[in-house]
Amino acid sequence: MALSKEQIAQRIAKEVKDGYYVNLGIGIPTLVANFVRDDISVEFQSENGILGMGPFPFEGEEDPDLINAGKQTITAMPGASFFDSAMSFGMIRGQHVDLTILGAMEVSQNGDIANWKIPGKMVKGMGGAMDLVASAENIIVAMMHTNREGESKLLRQCSLPLTGVKCVKKIVTDLAVLEIIEGKFHLLERAPGISVEEIQKATEGDLIIKGNIPEMVF
């Protein structure tokens, strides 16, 4: 069965290590903060100017002045700091963020990412994505494997305007966990109940499958 957005975030949370500084993009990535283990220390950064984001607030406990880059209400952890966008992007461009988690409309087998514009449609714009993908060394993409028409979003070449080139390292979709190695998608894990054949059918790009592919464990 394909994963929900929350389950994609839960799987990505396993990639977050103790001591990491992590930037969470708009969409599915914002959910990752809800699933990080309690026994590790992680600092979540938002490019609108906060270091030390916590999980989403419970209903009725929202502070309208405390938001992330996607304008969602958030919480702040003890010791959180607040600053302007110039300092925030200084952190990003200065490569002080250990892990960047982004959503995407398309990813190519070369590691290119397109996540900011669909010609002829209204989208939120690029935000800080171009700075993030240009500066980060460790980028994980959270996305659906196919679009609403059932067409693959994991492609040989992106058809949409690029956000970054050869920058994506790992992808977690509703069907699989994949790593990009030497210009190919390598299948690492599959969603519970999803077959390798289903993932192959949903992937337009070159997919490398080695050995027995385990199911994701939550």
UniProtKB/TrEMBL annotation:
Pfam families: CoA_trans. SUPFAM superfamilies: NagB/RpiA/CoA transferase-like. One of its GO terms (molecular function) is transferase activity. Keywords: Transferase. Belongs to the 3-oxoacid CoA-transferase subunit B family. This is CoA transferase subunit B.
